[in-house]
Design brief:
With 157 residues, this protein is an alpha+beta fold. The chain has three helices and six strands. It has two domains: 62 residues; 84 residues, no CATH class. A hairpin with a 2-residue loop joins strand 1 and strand 2.
Amino acid sequence: MLYSSTPPAVMILLFAGTVWALGILGAAWLVLTVVGWIKYRAWKLASIAVAIVAATAVLVVLSVPFRVAFAVSKGPLTDIATACSATPAGGWAGAYELDGVSAVDGGCLIYVEGGFLDQVGFAYMPDGAPKLGPPDGEQQIGYAGLDGDWYTFVHRF
């Protein structure tokens, strides 16, 4: 679940699969926990799982996996963005698997794995993004501010 939250847009299939798996395992865990509490008075050990699940949910809601992954990857992403030359898909820049790089007016788009139908990634735009907000339509790009000259983008399918 934490890994699926590292790109600019959640890896929806991985995230959904993780949520379903955690739901099924959580139901089984709940039954076993109640039995453990009643029969064996083992509430301390069972409470550890509750704390781990709660901490994971809080981290995802606060976008901590995304922010940490970007902070770790900012150096390699900056190197790629300043050169802004074609990078083969499948390479890595820090925590992100690259899907491609393309030059645009005023900057560079770095496509990373993520999104569902739409392509997502990071935009390095020293002069600022052309327009902040979601894409206006198909084959359009929408930008959101991230950190200084860095933006996230969604390239609508």
